[in-house]
């Protein structure tokens, strides 16, 4: 990509399973991208300068357009780079529906599993941060419960892995056939997390021989090609560009949103996170975009999925 304004910049840290999902997505499309490494724990001042307060990983930046949540990132990559498609069959709607489970309940279950298995060895600051996100306000009690419930949690993860193993039993390379799809990346990050962050992961996964073969196929896709980028350079790039996000509100808008309204956007869970404030620029059934201006980054558009996020009119 010769134009700096169109470079894909991934703000993430290497150990993030959701960032691994996006890195595999880059690999499926054979993309070149820049890597800005962010801290695993708050504060994340360079990231939140761009997003207006959103601190989850990963975030993708293209010029002055900032894409939060892997739902939004995958959708935008498909729009900009349609071939090879993340949706190589006619099952696009079903894949998006299934992804809300892989990214929601299944991933949350896996996080509780991994946190619970770590027990007292878990870093206290990391436990407090992720526990608040995935176990609620009384995260310390939740963490103890997850540790005590580990056999139950293993059983809950084992069931969907057995379903995947059965899906792959006919020898297919990927979940929906011979071509890798977004749903492969969306399931792979859960398996990658289990293998790498749970001491019992490799032994547990070896039970699912078809799944392991698929896992190797996805790993072989790679991550495209990346080069590091300094966080301040990413901020300066955003400041030098104008956002290109669309403007408008789709028909049948259930919340009565209109362009130019002051709104806040926040994940629709009680994770103690900061809402992102700005003016509404775009909304439809899948996406909401807010525009915000700050001295350090200039004017940017911050894009969120509609599903899983709460929009409030200020």
Would you kindly provide a written description of the structure presented here, covering whatever features stand out?
- With 314 residues, the protein is an alpha/beta fold.
- The protein folds into 2 domains: 4-84 and 226-313, Glutaredoxin (3-Layer(aba) Sandwich); 92-220, Glutathione S-transferase Yfyf (Class Pi), Chain A, domain 2 (Up-down Bundle), CATH 1.20.1050.10.
- Helices cover 45% and strands 19% of the residues.
- The chain has 11 helices and 11 strands.
- The chain has helices at residues 17-29, 45-51, 70-80, 92-118, 124-135, 139-148, 150-167, 182-197, 201-205, 209-221, 231-240; strands spanning 9-12, 32-37, 59-62, 65-68, 225-228, 248-249, 262-267, 276-283, 287-294, 298-305, 309-313.
- Strands 1, 2, 3, 4, 5, 6, 7, 8, 9, 10 and 11 form an 11-stranded mixed β-sheet that branches.
- Helix 1 packs across helix 8 and helix 4 (92-118) packs across helix 6.
- It is globular.
- The mean pLDDT is 95.
């Amino acid at each position: 990509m010769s134009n700096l304004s169109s470079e894909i910049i991934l703000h993430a840290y290497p150990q993030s399973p959701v960032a691994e999902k996006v890195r595999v997505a880059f690999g499926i499309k054979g993309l070149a991208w820049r890597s800005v490494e962010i801290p695993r724990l708050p504060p994340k001042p360079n990231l939140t300068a761009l997003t207006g307060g959103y601190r989850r990983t990963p975030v993708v930046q293209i010029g002055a357009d900032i894409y939060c949540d892997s739902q939004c990132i995958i959708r935008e990559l498909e729009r900009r780079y349609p071939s090879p498609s993340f949706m190589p069959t006619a099952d696009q709607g079903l894949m998006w529906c299934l992804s809300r489970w892989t990214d929601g309940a299944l991933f949350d279950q896996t996080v509780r599993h991994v946190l619970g298995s770590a027990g007292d060895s878990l870093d206290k600051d990391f436990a407090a941060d992720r526990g608040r996100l995935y176990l609620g306000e009384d995260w310390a009690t939740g963490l103890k419960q997850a540790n005590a419930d580990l056999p139950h949690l293993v059983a809950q993860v084992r069931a969907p892995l057995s379903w995947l193993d059965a899906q792959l039993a006919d020898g297919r390379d990927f979940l929906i056939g011979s071509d890798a799809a977004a749903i492969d990346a969306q399931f792979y990050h859960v398996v990658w997390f289990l293998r790498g962050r749970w001491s019992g992961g490799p032994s547990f996964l070896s039970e699912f021989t078809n799944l392991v073969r698929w896992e190797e196929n996805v790993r072989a896709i790679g991550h495209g090609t990346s080069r590091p980028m300094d966080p301040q350079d990413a901020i300066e790039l955003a400041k030098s560009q104008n956002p290109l996000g669309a403007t408008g509100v789709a028909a049948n808008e259930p919340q009565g949103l209109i362009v130019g309204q002051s709104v806040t956007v926040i994940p629709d869970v009680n994770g103690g996170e900061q809402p992102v404030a700005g003016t509404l620029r775009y909304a439809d059934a899948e996406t909401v975009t807010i525009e915000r201006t700050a001295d350090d980054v200039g004017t940017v558009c911050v894009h969120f999925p509609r599903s899983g996020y709460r929009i409030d009119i200020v």
